[in-house]
Amino acid sequence: LMKYSLSLHSQYLENYLWINYSPEVSSKAYLMSICCMVNEKFRENVPAWEIFQKKPEHFPFFFKCILEASLVENDSEYSLHEQTVLLLLLDHCFNSLEVDLIRAQVQQLISLPMWMALQPKRLEQELKKTPKLRKFWNLIKKNDEKMDEEARMRAYQERRFLSQLIQKFISVLKSIPVSGPISMDKVHYCERFIELMLDLEALLPTRRWFNTVLDDSHLVVHCYLSSLAKREKEGHLFCQLLDMLKFYTGFEINDQTGNALTENEMTTIHYDRITSLQRAAFAHFPELYDFALSNVAAVDTRDSLVKLFGPLSSNVLHQVASYLCLLPSLPEGEDSSYEKEFLLELLVSRHERRISQIQQLNQMPLYPTEKIIWDENIVPTEYYSGEGCLALPKLNLQFLTLHDYLLRNFNLFRLESTYEIRQDIEDSVSRMKPWLSEYGGVVFGGWARMAQPIVSFTVVEVAKPNIGENWPMRVRADVTINLNVRDNIKDEWEGLRKHDVCFLITVRPTQPYGTKFDRRQPFVEQIGLVYVRGCEIQGMLDEKGRVIEEGPDPKPRLKGDCRTYRVFLDPNQYQQDMTNTIQNGAEDVYETFNIIMRRKPKENNFKAVLETIRNLMNTDCVVPDWLHDIILGYGDPSSAHYSKMPNQIATLDFNDTFLSIDHLKASFPGYNIKVTVDNPVLQIPPFRITFPIMGGKGKKRKEEDGNEEKPEEAKTLIVEPHVIPNRGPYPYNQPKR
Q: Keyword set for this entry (predicted)?
C-alpha cells in the first residue's frame, strides 16, 4: 500500500504508464501495473479515468487484454491474486458507466446479444415472454451474417465473456475443499467475484439482460452448495455477499421495463412458476400426481417441496428441470451428470414461497445486536484500509427502484449508527471493569458515567400480535438499577426521557479480579460480552409502580437510590429470541442482562430515523412522479424544472409575502411588472401574481390561436393588488385597516 501510495502521489500512471502505453509495448507486467494503479486511485477516492479520456486511442486494446486475462485458466500465466486485481478493475468499469469511454467498451458485454450464451430452450422461452424482443433478436442475427469472420469472432467473445467468467468462477469454487488447509487467494477471488455479480445486478443498465444469464447459470445454487459456504470462518464474508446477491437476483422489478413490481405481481409470478411445474408433473411424471393435483399453498414451502421431490432419482429431477428450460435435455439412455443435491436445490429454491421485501423489512429488528456490532465485514473498524470487500450496499449514481434507494440508505444508516454504538459500548463497559468473582459471578471493579449494573430485569408485558403479523404488538420490561453515585450523575440517569434509547448488555467475564484490559486485543473475548439488546425508555416508575408522566409539573423526589425504569423492547428481536429459545433450546437472553448503558441524546436519534425510513417504504406514494426518476438517477435532471411541467400553475396568491409593490418589483429583477390597478394608492398587498406559462424544451407554449408568445410577454408578470384571500368567517376575510 505504501508503494502504491507513493506511486499515486508521483502520478506514475499519468506521467509514465498510460502516456507510453501502446499495443506494441503491452505486456503482463505493464497491464498489471496499470490495473493496480487504477484500483489504488479508486481505493483513495481519486478520479481514475481522466488520463484515459485524454488519450483514449489505446483504451479498447487495453480493455480487450483485461477481458482475455480474466478468462485465463492456467495459474502460471496469471495467478489467482492477479486475476482478483483484474476482477476489481472490471468492477470499477461496470460502476463507471457515466464515463463515455468506459460505457463504449462495457455495453458490448451487457447488451441483448449476450443472450446467445443462454440454452436454446431458455432463449426461446424468454423471447416468447416479450414479443418485441424477437424483432430485435432477428435484427441482431441479420447483422451478424453481414460481419466478416474476424468481427464475428470478436463479437462472439464479447457476448459470452460474462458467461465464461461465471463458469471459470464455478470451477475455482469447486476446487475449495470442505475442510483442511485452504488457499486464501481462492477465497478472495470468490469474494471479489460475488461483489462483481452483485454490482451488475444492482444497476438497471447492467441488470436488464445479465440477470437472465445469471439465472441460467444457476450461480446462486452452486454457491450455496459449495464447500466455501460451509466453512464457518473462511466463508463468513462469502455467505454474507451471497445473501445480498440472492436478494438482488429476485428483486421486485421488471428487468426489461425497469418498473417496480407490486406484491400482487410478484405473487402472480410465483403462482405461474408453481403451476407450470404442476403441469409438467401431471403430463410427464406419474409419480408426482399428488403434487400436480394439490393447491399451491399446500406445496410451495421448502419442506413440502423437499418431501415431494426428495425421493426422486437424479435422472427424473433432471428431466423435470429440463422440461422447465432450466437445464439441457437429458439424452436417452444416459445418466444425469449433475448431483442430486444440486438438482433438488435448483427446483426447490426456484419454486419455494418467497417473503416480500416489505415483510422482511417489517420483521427486521431496528436495534443492532452483538452479532452485527462486532462483525467487521459489515461494520469495519477505523483501521479499515479498503483492501478487502465488505458486505455493504453501495450508493451508486443509479438505483433500481425507490424501494432499493430507501433500503440501501436504511441499511447504511443503521450500520453507521452501529459503528458509533460499538465505540460507546466498548468505552463504557471497559470502564466498569467486569471481572470473574471467586464464586463464579460478575464483579465490577470500576464505574462508568453512561452505564450501571442491573439489579433486576423483568419482562412485564408481551402484547398480542396485530392481525396479519407474527410478532408481538408491544413488549415491555422493568429495569432496576442502584444509583449510588454522585448527585450530578444521578440527575442525569433520573433525567432519562420517554423515547430515549438504552442498551441492555450481558457480560460473563473469564478474567480474574484485577486483570488489566488491553485495548489492542479483541474487546469481546477480553470482556466476555455475550448479548446486546436495545430498548426504549417509557419512563421512570414512582413508589407505587406507575410511570411518571412528563409534563409541566416537577417530577416527584423518590427516596433511596434504587430506580426502576419501564422500557419498550424491540418486538421483532424478542420474537426471534423466543423462537430460538423454544425451537433450538437456546438460552433465554432476557434473563441474563447485567448492564444497562445510555447514550448522549444528541447522538441517539438513530431509531427514530430508521422508523421513519421504514414507514416511508410502507407508503405507496413517497415522491411525485416528476421527481421519481431524478432520484433514481434516470432521465434529464432539468425535466424537473417548473418550465418543463405540463401542469404549471399560472396564478398564485402570495398573501402577505411582499411588504409593498416596491418589494415585489425587487424580488423579480428582469421582469416587467404589470399592475392591474393604475392608482398607486391601491397598489398594496396582498398580491395575486399571474406568471407566463412555459412549455416544451424551454420554449414558450403556443397560444390558442397558434401564435407563439412574444419575448416581452414571456418576461411579464401580471399583478393584482389588494386581493383578500377567502380565509373563512370574520375577521379573517376583512381588509387590514
A: ATP-binding, Helicase, Hydrolase, Nucleotide-binding
Q: Which of 88, 57, 55 is CA-nearest to residue 70?
A: 88
- In total, the chain counts a number of residues equal to 737
Q: How far apart are CA 572 and CA 475, in angstroms?
A: 10
Q: Under 8 Å CB-to-CB from 191, ≥6 apart: which residues?
A: 237, 238, 241, 388, 389
State the cell numbers at 133.
424482443
Contact 548, 540 (CB under 8 A): yes
Summarize pLDDT for 542-595 with one digit per residue, the tens: 888 888 887 777 777 888 889 999 999 999 999 999 999 999 989 999 999 999
Pairing relationship of beta strands 451-462 and 475-482 according to DSSP bridges? antiparallel
What DSSP letter does each residue of 459-476 carry, written as one string?
Answer: EEEEPPBPTT-SSBS-EE
Distance CA 578, CA 564 (A): 24
Grid coordinates representing 86?
Answer: 483484474
The three-state secondary structure class of 350 is helix
CA distances (Å), 476 to each of 368, 461, 502, 565, in order? 18, 5, 14, 10
pTM of the shown model: 0.85
Asked if residue 42 lies in contact with residue 48, where contact means CB atoms within 8 angstroms, the answer is yes
What is the spatial distance between Cα 110 and Cα 106, in angstroms, rounded to a whole number? 7
Contact 187, 238 (CB under 8 A): yes
Residue 707 has pLDDT above 80, yes or no: no
Phi, then psi, of 531 in degrees rounded to 5? -135, 150
* Lowest pLDDT segment from 209-213, 225-229, 664-668: 664-668
Q: For 138-156, how does the pLDDT look when each residue is reduced to its tens digit (9 = 90+)?
A: 999 898 888 888 888 888 8
Rounded-to-integer distance, Cα 490 and Cα 483, Å:
6
Lookup result for grid cell 445454487? 221
Beta strands (DSSP E) in 508-650 are 529-540, 562-569, 595-598
Please state, in angstroms and rounded to a whole number, the distance separating the CA atoms of residues 447 and 493: 14
Measured from the Cβ of residue 165, the count of other Cβ atoms closer than 10 Å reads 19
Distance CA 334, CA 262 (A): 43
At CB < 8 A and 24+ separation, what contacts does 318-324 make? 318/343, 319/284, 319/285, 320/277, 320/280, 320/281, 320/285, 320/288, 320/347, 321/346, 321/347, 322/121, 323/280, 323/284, 324/276, 324/277, 324/280
By the 8 A CB rule, do 690 and 696 touch? no
Write out pLDDT tens, residues 35-72. Answer: 999 999 998 888 899 999 999 999 999 999 999 999 99
pLDDT of residue 334: 86
Alpha-carbon dihedral sign for residues 282, 287, 289, 291 = negative
Return all residues near 677 (Cβ < 8 A) that are at least 6 apart.
683, 720, 721, 722
Rounded to 5 degrees, φ, ψ at 702 are: -70, 145
Give the HSE-up count for residue 272: Cα atoms under 13 Å, Cβ half-sphere. Answer: 7
